[in-house]
């Protein structure tokens, strides 16, 4: 794949039909929802039939019971270790461990939001509020709205909030229009990417509180109460057990590594893949496959990324349970080969190299401008 690719406004070899954007409800909708406008003869419908025939959309309650139970035990173990160690610099090791646990909680919230765990909205929402708001300090409703828009239009310069030029720029077009902080950071954004990720956990919490005043927030009182409870417990526990200096060091290590973990999971999925300009016509299957990247690596990568290394299959079938994604990958790759649709997957380190190379490339006009 080229370092910086923007799909042309018209591409007869890639495009067939324009699909309406999904309604922005506070959950990620199934790709075969009625309002997608795909006919029975679409390329996606045939893939969907093969996936369903293979039984890959069935719920996996035992898997999620074991997985969520293990994360809960790890969280309880981390809290117990924190209380036992007391006011000690050894707490920084606990901070490292809890950064990983928080990353896994983020992945659990993601699966709950996509209804991979429960088929019904209410238990999915309750579980999401518990994990996201109370345990992580991130607004479930805010994140759901944002993530729904990302799934509807991945890597779309105007419609995907994950590639909006808030601080970083993701295309040369965005670079040419950048002003202020994005223009300054964009010059060296590849080098600054991982340092900036250390602030991602705090950024999620900041935007969560900010979103409480948004008209789109359905339950601001409930969400706000849970967010406040999280930070009362978090900072109350830290500053009760630790001296101020050690507490601040704990926060820096914990939140910094948590942000890097999240960024390392989500950045390889789309960064450096083709960007879509306004007016580009792509059917659902191509829109999801061409903008997504899979990451190979076996069981360890599967566990580290929570199944999001199968990003192509996840975008095609958002509610597919995590353990089914590996089998779906083989079906999807073979089907894309039949259609002649490019299907991209690579290793974990190579995926980061591609993303960073893309970021450096799109920032080149800013460096040239001085």
What do these coordinates show?
The protein is globular and about 60 Å long. Helix 1 packs antiparallel against helix 15, helix 3 packs antiparallel against helix 4 and helix 10 packs across helix 11 (244-270). With 370 residues, it is mostly helical. It has a two-stranded parallel ribbon. The chain contains 17 helices and four strands. 38% of the residues are buried. It has helices at 43-53, 61-85, 91-113, 121-136, 140-152, 172-177, 180-186, 189-197, 200-211, 220-241, 244-270, 284-290, 298-305, 311-316, 325-339, 348-362, 364-369, and strands at 6-7, 275-276, 294-296, 345-347. The protein is 62% helix and 3% strand. It starts with 5 loop residues before the first strand and ends with a helix.
List keywords for this structure.
370 residues, mainly alpha, two-stranded parallel ribbon, 3% strand, disordered N terminus
Short overview:
This protein is an all-alpha fold.
> Strand tally, please?
4
Instruction: Report on the biggest sheet.
Output: 2 strands, parallel
Silhouette: globular
Computed CA radius of gyration, to the nearest angstrom: 21 Å
SSE string, helix = H, strand = E?
A: EHHHHHHHHHHHEHEHHHEHH
Low-pLDDT residue intervals, each spanning 5 or more residues: 1-6, 8-40
What topology does this entry show?
Layout (H helix, E strand, L loop, with lengths): L5 E2 L35 H11 L7 H25 L5 H23 L7 H16 L3 H13 L19 H6 L2 H7 L2 H9 L2 H12 L8 H22 L2 H27 L4 E2 L7 H7 L3 E3 L1 H8 L5 H6 L8 H15 L5 E3 H15 L1 H6 L1
Parallel strand pairs: 1-2, 3-4
Helix pairs in contact: 1-15, 2-3, 3-4, 3-11, 4-10, 8-16, 10-11, 11-16
């Amino acid at each position: 794949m080229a370092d910086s690719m923007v799909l042309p406004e018209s591409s007869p070899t890639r495009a067939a039909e324009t699909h309406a954007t999904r309604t922005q409800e506070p959950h990620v909708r199934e790709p075969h929802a009625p309002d997608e406008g795909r006919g029975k003869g679409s390329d996606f419908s045939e893939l969907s039939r093969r996936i369903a025939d293979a039984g890959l959309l069935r719920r996996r309650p035992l898997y999620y019971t074991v997985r969520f139970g293990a994360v809960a035990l790890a969280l309880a173990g981390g809290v117990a270790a924190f209380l036992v160690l007391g006011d000690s610099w050894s707490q920084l090791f606990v901070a490292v461990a809890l950064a990983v646990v928080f990353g896994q909680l983020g992945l659990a919230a993601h699966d709950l939001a996509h209804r991979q765990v429960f088929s019904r909205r209410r238990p999915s929402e309750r579980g999401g509020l518990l994990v996201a708001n109370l345990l992580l300090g991130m607004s479930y409703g805010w994140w759901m709205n944002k993530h729904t828009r990302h799934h509807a239009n991945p890597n779309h310069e105007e419609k995907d909030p994950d590639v909006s030029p808030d601080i970083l720029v993701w295309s040369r077009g965005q670079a040419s229009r950048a002003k202020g902080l994005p223009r300054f950071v964009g010059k060296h954004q590849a080098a600054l990417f991982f340092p900036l990720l250390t602030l991602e956990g705090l950024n999620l919490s900041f935007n969560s509180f900010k979103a409480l005043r948004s008209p789109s927030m359905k339950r601001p009182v409930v969400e706000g109460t849970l967010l406040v409870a999280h930070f009362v417990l978090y900072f109350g526990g830290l500053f009760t057990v630790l001296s101020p200096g050690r507490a601040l060091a704990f926060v820096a290590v914990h939140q910094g590594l948590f942000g890097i973990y999240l960024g390392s999971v989500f950045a390889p999925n789309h960064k450096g893949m083709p960007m879509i300009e306004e007016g580009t016509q792509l059917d659902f299957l191509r829109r999801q496959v061409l903008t997504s990247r899979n990451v190979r690596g076996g069981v360890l990568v599967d566990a580290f990324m929570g199944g999001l290394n199968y990003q192509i299959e996840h975008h095609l079938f958002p509610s597919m349970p995590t353990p089914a994604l590996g089998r779906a990958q083989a079906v999807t790759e073979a089907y894309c080969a039949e259609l002649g649709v490019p299907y991209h997957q690579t290793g974990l380190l190579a995926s980061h190299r591609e993303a960073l190379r893309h970021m450096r490339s799109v920032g080149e006009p800013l460096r040239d401008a001085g």
